[in-house]
Amino acid sequence: MSFEGVVRQAYSRRAFLLGAMSATTAGVLAACSQPSAAPTTAPAAQPTTAPAAAAPTKPAAAPAASPAAAASPAAAASPAVKPAASPAASPAAAASTVSRTVAPPVPANIVAAAKALPSGQKITYYGDGVGPAGELEKTMTDQFVKETGIQVAFTQRPQDSTESLALFQRFFQGQSADIDAMSIDVVWPGILAPHLLDLNQAAGDDAKQHYAGIIANNTVGGKLVAMPYFSDFGMLYYRTDLLQKYGFAKPPLTWDELAMQAQKILDGEKAANPTFAGFVFQGKAYEGLTCDALEWIASSGGGTIIDASTNKVTVNNPQAVAILNTVKGWIGTIVPRGVTSYQEEDARSAFGGGNAAFMRQWPYAYEPSQAAGSPVKGKFDIAPLPANPPGKPSGTIGGWGQAVSKYSKAPDAAVQYVRYVTSAPVQTWRAIAGGFVPTIQSVADNADVNVAQPYLKAVANVERVGRPAGAYGDSYNQASTAFFQGVSQILGGQDAAQVLPGVQQKLQQLLA
């Protein structure tokens, strides 16, 4: 498929996110979206040599210097389930006076570092080119070019996340210098790490501003291979009107409290609404279930699948057994039986339609749920997901980062570009103008950001937990599949104590 063909694909699910929000964006959204099928022939795009300040770059033919169109070995060896795509944009943007066409100035230290480089620096950046995300990226790229003198060829990457990964893998397979910087999905660091520049030396101080969990996710073998760009994480949506109606002063803090509140509300509502549910989540056997189950286990003190200090799989433990059996017990009571086929949009449709008291979801669902005509407009709020001591409220990390190819002919220039677009001023601007969830606490605390994203303050102390993509590398797809299939068996009625030993054995074998 040509690059233009990819761009013109009939409203890819991610393109919907970036353009107009629609109920047909089924299952895509967030870090744990429905995996896409691998492309038959991965797309390629020709980086232009024009500076970013020029007219918008148009897709062109495949680069002559790029690798052959055959799928990379890593892609070919992957199982049918591909890495889930994080959303390329958060559509939760609120109306604001901040302009998408005026980017913040480049910080003085970055300008100084850029101007210290030899003149004539040119880089090619692969990023978003669709909707609000593309508008913001072109604006900030123009600002960078204007202040630093480094020319940036802005090239739109494929809108399908799997196709983007295949394209990058082909570039790297041929050690091509036709790509310098790029945006990468949160689950790609382990896959692409051998081909990415270690940013510790140049951006190590910058990295200290970002959430530690995301930096850990982007660090592979001690190398910081990507700077956080924007984030997503799981959170609890709840009906404020129904909590008040049934005498609850606040949302649940523990999973037992959630079950109790959901049951009481369900008992009171089901007579008038037989389809009403107490709690909905992403229960289908796919990457979304990996995200949800990781949150259940981590928030119950059961770890995060792998103990990083020992490199051992730890998922078979009493806390994990207890919480997974607890969730199994909800199926058919506070949770509809059909939840085992739910993806993101199925859960959003239930909650947004006024048919659920609680929902586990990503930030993207906030805006459409508050839109004019929504049955729950003004009737819900967001809180951290519950936790069982000694666990803490946890949210699985989604989002994207910015990386630099180690085959770049202008790595220092590319690093300065990445530093700028992931900086606190740019994150603040993108959070207000585009609704992107920041990865820097000081940005999340910003008053204007909280007006645009009012739920951020409530979830500020959530533990961001990463999937073990870095540890598994190219085997992550198989590892995630083994995990979510095991959890699916438990939700289907099997005892977690009987299922988890086998899951742990499979995961440990893949880690070896």
Describe this structure in words.
This protein has 512 residues and is of the alpha/beta class. Helix content is 39%, strand content 13%. It has 22 helices and 14 strands. It has helices spanning 3-7, 13-18, 73-77, 108-115, 131-148, 161-173, 189-192, 200-207, 212-217, 240-245, 255-269, 287-298, 318-330, 344-352, 366-370, 411-421, 424-434, 441-444, 447-452, 469-472, 476-491, 496-511; strands at 122-127, 151-156, 181-185, 219-220, 223-224, 227-233, 235-239, 277-280, 306-307, 312-313, 356-361, 380-383, 394-404, 463-465. The strands form four sheets. Strands 1, 2, 3, 6, 13 and 14 form a six-stranded mixed beta sheet that branches. It has a four-stranded mixed beta sheet with strand order 8-11-7-12, with helices on both faces. A hairpin with a 2-residue loop joins strand 4 and strand 5 (223-224). Helix 4 (108-115) packs antiparallel against helix 16 and helix 5 (131-148) runs antiparallel to helix 17 (424-434). 59% of the residues are buried. Mean pLDDT is 83; it is low at 1-31 and 33-95.
